[in-house]
User: What shape does this take?
Amino acid sequence: MKVVILAGGMGSRILEKTETIPKPMIEVAGRPMIYHIMKSYNDFGYNHFIVALGYLQEVIKSYFLNFSELNQDISVNLRQMKTSFYEKPLPNWQIDLIDTGLKTQTGGRLKRLKKHLGNSTFMMTYGDGLSDVNITKLLKFHKAHSKLATVTAVHPPSRFGGLTLNGERVETFSEKPQKGWINGGFFILEPEVLDYIDSDETMWEKVPLENLATAGELMAFKHEGFWHPMDTMRDHRALEELCQGGKLPWRAKEDELSKMRGLL
Assistant: This one.
């Protein structure tokens, strides 16, 4: 199953970092956000990523084009100008880096990927949020309800918008700040959701999700575990502080992964 990562936005709320790099390339615990997100999916067996690029896309392309060199130990003989690598195992990931336009909105970026997604169920998330959501349980939940879309609902800081739930069904979707559950990303989507997106100017978080909710086609997987955005410098500092001691709270626990591997 393919995993879409929206990575084309300008990151205007964290300009201290995003003047020179796109937000998914901001490092936490020594690695770009996008790497951590991919690793979280890979832990559950998903390794085909489609990255929707836009702002400073060349930075993300360069990172993956040079991933091997950046993540290997290197021996350089300056006199002979010879280079050799002390090989380390690299992730078995397929990464499709797709230009979806500089100013395209989130829904438009998703629609531009239609030919790359085919007619199969796919996953989608943002390039600026980390979570230890159990992807196997998320997918099982999505298959069980047979609706077009599943959003992972998380408990937010109060500045985020919210979901109004009736049990597990989303009744309304609003980006206005409120308490309760919010859109935490980590969607499971059927290809028909692309029909809810009109153009490049369509924000996924507005009309498409609102209409899916109204049609009864949007369900919420309630995640009570770790979730943290990286929208501001305050968020970035908070994530770095959480990593003190080498622990990455967004990584699934090994005992949980061991149980899930039997279900893949």
Remarks:
- DSSP finds ten helices and 16 strands in the chain.
- The radius of gyration is 19 Å.
- The first helix runs from residue 15 to 18.
- The first strand starts at residue 2 and ends at 7.
